[in-house]
């Protein structure tokens, strides 16, 4: 992990100008170089605040991810308005396995809570690796976290404030329980209050971290629909449970389905089938057989194509194209072209969200 001092300072200085901060990082290559080049009246104040934040981080066992870190969550990295810094507490692995964000109304019905619990339970039973993400709010959010904790599934709570507090305070038990498998992840420094605009801002993390976003219940207007829109903007797969036309808590879900913005699901199996995820019950060929298959299939391929095929063969859950670009250190266009050729030959399969998987 790199020293995050200047990343923290930049995030404080440009708190309401994220795109400006990201542009500076892209231009200068590092937060420290960008910090040296800029001339802003609040530089000294923000740097002093960043030093205090760094002391607080070290004192409280907070993990920090910056865009310079290789293990910055790769799904989130591809978002144009990605956070330039993340603060985490717990046992967090925000790039591993299948990640599903579950959102919905704060005035959840009993049916909505039961649907949420059943979805988490059945996904856990069918998938080898699963993480549940939500915002820790009342209603569907906390139902998703509670179900994950109940069934031993890692869950990531994305609060709309700093990690020096829990809001709502009634959900502190769930926040503490999440630390064993999962934890809390936010872009807000300590001292940040849970004001209204922060909830909208944090929703993009809930959407961007995931492979798939599920709206369980939603009224015609609400924060979960903002998360759904962001998921679509990020090319995440979006799903919704339908409801009766007379149910106020189903209006938003029904509208998403009617407009073909979200796929209709009724259970975990629908989601797994739509995502083409391999379940734990699927037969898996032996590693020796897989290696032999790759050797036979790779005849006639270029060396870069063979390298991509080998990496995908080794990754049971598939790999995102951005991760393949990083690991092969090749231009995006070249990797994309080779992946298309491999897919045309029937050697790999493209999945929703930019994921590619070896055909086993």
Brief summary:
The chain is an alpha/beta fold and 360 residues long.
Protein model, in words:
The protein is of the alpha/beta class. The chain has three domains: 5-91, no CATH class; 98-275, Rossmann fold, CATH 3.40.50.450; 287-358, Arc Repressor Mutant, subunit A, CATH 1.10.10.10. The protein contains 16 helices and twelve strands. A nine-stranded mixed sheet has the order 1-2-6-5-4-3-7-8-9, sandwiched between helices. Residues 283-297 have low confidence and may be disordered.
Low-confidence segments, given as residue ranges, are 283-297
Separation of the first and last Cα atoms: 36 Å
> How many independent structural domains?
3
Number of helices: 16
How are the strands of the biggest sheet laid out side by side?
1-2-6-5-4-3-7-8-9
Question: Mind sketching the topology for me?
Answer:
Elements lengths: L4 H9 L4 H11 L2 H7 L5 H17 L3 E4 L7 H4 L7 E7 L6 E6 L6 H17 L3 E5 L5 H11 L4 E3 L14 H7 L3 E5 L9 H13 L3 E4 L7 H11 L3 E4 L10 H8 L4 E2 L3 H8 L11 H11 L5 H12 L4 E2 H8 L3 H13 L3 E4 L3 E4 L2
Parallel strand pairs: 3-4, 3-7, 4-5, 5-6, 7-8, 8-9
Antiparallel strand pairs: 1-2, 2-6, 10-12, 11-12
Looking at this protein, list some descriptive labels.
Arc Repressor Mutant, subunit A, 46% helix, 9-stranded mixed sheet, 12 strands, alpha/beta, 16 helices, 360 residues
